[in-house]
Structure formats: C-alpha cells, structure tokens
C-alpha cells in the first residue's frame, strides 16, 4: 500500500459532529486528486440537507462543506466502491450497525475508526469490535485519535492527530489521504495505546468537568489531569500499549484538549452533574454523544480484571451510579494512602 494510489472514494459512516468534520477533512485532502467522499446519515433529512445546502446544521452550524462531499441515508450506496471506510457512530451502537452493513463493506477496504469508547458488556475496543464482527484482518483496521474537538477543526483551526495501525504503511496511506492545510496526522503502530488514550480521557474529562462545576481552580484540574494520565497509562500498558503513546497526541494531547475545553461533551457533562443535574437530565440536555458516561464502567471492569488501580475512574463510576455525590469525589481521592508519584506505582 503506497501513497501513490490514495483512495478515490472514502465512505464515512456517521454524520454527527466528528463524522461530518472528518468527511470534510478527507474531502479537502482529496479535492486535488478528485477524490469523492460520501457520508452515511441515518436520517434522510440530514443527508438531504448536506446535499442541497452543503451544511449539517444540527452538528456544525456555521460550516460550509466541500463540493466533493455528498451524503446518503443508503449505506449500500455510500459503501460501494470505497477504498477507505471511516466509522464514526456512538461506540455502543457500532456492533449493531456493523451487523446490519456487514455484506456491504468492499472486501479490500481499509477501515478507520474515529470512535473513543469501550463497549459495555464486552469491554472491547472499537477496533476489536470491527475485527470480530467483520472478520477483518488487523493490518487493515486503523484508528485515529488526538486532540480533535470537531468544532475547532470544522473552523479549520490547525490541529494534529495520530493514525495507528499494526501496519505502518497502511497508517501512512490513511494519513496521506486525510492531511489538509489545517490537519496534520502522525502515524504509529500502537493501536491499543492510541485507543485507550482516547477512551479514558473522556472519563477523566468527566472528573475535571465536575471540578469546574464545583468552582475549583487550575491546580485541582491539573492534578486530576496528571494523575488521570498516570492511570490511563497503567491500563494501556497492562493491555499491551506503549507508555510513549500516552505521552503523545492521543494521550496527553487529547487529555489536555478535552479537559480544558467547554466544547467537550464529556467535560460539559461533568460540569452539569456538579451543578446538580441528574445523569438522565445531563444526557437529555446534551443531545450529543459523551462516550465517557457509558465507557467509564467498562474501563473500570477491564482495569479490575487486569489488577490495574484506577482511582479517578473508580470514583467517577461511583458518581455516575449515584453511589457517591459529586461533593464526595475530591475528598475520597485525597484521603487515600500517600505513595510515590510514578506512573506505574499502584
Ligand atoms: N465530536 C468530537 O469532537 C469528536 C468525537 N469523537 C468520537 O467520535 C464518535 C462519534 O461522535 P460524534 O460524531 O461526536 O457524535 P455525535 O453525537 O455528534 O453524532 C452521533 C452520530 O451518530 C448517529 N447515531 C446515533 N445513534 C446511532 C445509531 N444507533 N446507529 C447509527 N448512528 C447513530 C447520529 O445520528 P442522528 O443525528 O440521526 O442522531 C449522529 O449522526 C464518538 O465515539 C466520539 O467519542 C472523536 C473525536 C472528536
Ligand atoms: O474526543 C474529543 C476531542 O479530541 C471530543 O471530546 P468530547 O467527546 O468530550 O466532546
């Protein structure tokens, strides 16, 4: 697989904020070589809006989409002939969609996951769900993750990211197909570390959002973020990922972006919980995917199976389950036994 033959057709499954923004990146990137990008929207009216107005106002109010980006609610039409298939639906819905669309995937396509969640019940990463459901080879499944708040990228604010695949040439091929003047993807072969960074930062962002909602300042938030990165790294390494990945864009980079930004849905969800909303009210108010809410329990389950200590995750889960109040989160974390700082110290 070489960068001399980049995809002539890219299919994006999911027309939410990130699916649409990534489709814009791929379309901008492929415009000069006349690449076509098609996006699958589950609501026909969303596809119709994209085609007739070049906008997706529910998710990206002010963005005009490129002319070589088209949409359809017909997955067969979108997937036909695609060399690169990009998946961007909420993590908990992925398996069901793959089952529905399984026969439509072009056999030689490379699949790229944009999703940052762990499946509830199986604790599987999205690349694992794809490999399992489609019986797809690992070297043709990649993930993209990094400090990538969709709204900022849709405004073409310069951003970097990481494409990870066990085959570095495939990662390079994808990176070349989605590089744009405002978007710079790096590559690596650490799929596990890259995915875990993106998944767990959502849980840490819930904790930081809670701190913010409780009017706590920057020291508190920096402490949670730094120790959050330590527990994320412990889990990633226990699963086979690399420490250095967690100190890169898909680890520290994404953690900083998500925990610092009011654009983050996970951060916002934490803030709303701290302001007294119930979990149901938070979910209803947001009307967009905050993966950390569902993934937190799966992260904790996986950590428990592996004997990995994740105190922030553990306490966020307790808040989400209503076992402790948001006010108890800080005191419970601070009252723990004192210990050396190292990332791998449990
Ligand atoms: N937004 C961001 O900044 C980033 C998001 N991500 C990740 O990308 C993934 C997708 O998130 P994002 O685009 O933000 O989510 P959004 O909430 O913005 O959009 C979700 C999309 O999925 C569709 N959808 C909802 N339920 C289903 C279902 N059961 N089957 C198929 N499609 C469904 C929605 O359709 P409808 O409109 O009809 O409801 C919508 O098109 C998540 O894992 C997220 O963590 C990663 C990096 C950045
Ligand atoms: O993953 C993201 C930024 O990299 C988006 O974060 P939220 O899902 O919290 O909005």
TrEMBL record:
As recorded in UniProt, its EC number(s) are 1.1.1.94
Pathway it acts in?
Answer: Membrane lipid metabolism; glycerophospholipid metabolism
Task: Give me the residues that bind NADPH, please.
Answer: 17-18, 42-43, 59, 116, 150, 265, 291
What's the catalysed reaction? sn-glycerol 3-phosphate + NAD(+) = dihydroxyacetone phosphate + NADH + H(+); sn-glycerol 3-phosphate + NADP(+) = dihydroxyacetone phosphate + NADPH + H(+)
Q: Where is the active site?
A: 201 (proton acceptor)
Q: Which UniProt keywords apply?
A: Cytoplasm, Lipid biosynthesis, Lipid metabolism, NAD, NADP, Nucleotide-binding, Oxidoreductase, Phospholipid biosynthesis, Phospholipid metabolism
Q: What is its main location?
A: cytoplasm
Please list the residues that bind sn-glycerol 3-phosphate: 116, 146, 201, 254, 264-266
Keyword Repeat appears in the UniProt entry: no
Locations listed in the record: Cytoplasm
Q: Does the keyword Cell membrane apply?
A: no
Functionally, this protein is described as follows: Catalyzes the reduction of the glycolytic intermediate dihydroxyacetone phosphate (DHAP) to sn-glycerol 3-phosphate (G3P), the key precursor for phospholipid synthesis.
**What protein name is recorded for this chain?**
Glycerol-3-phosphate dehydrogenase [NAD(P)+]
Task: Name the encoding gene, please.
Answer: gpsA
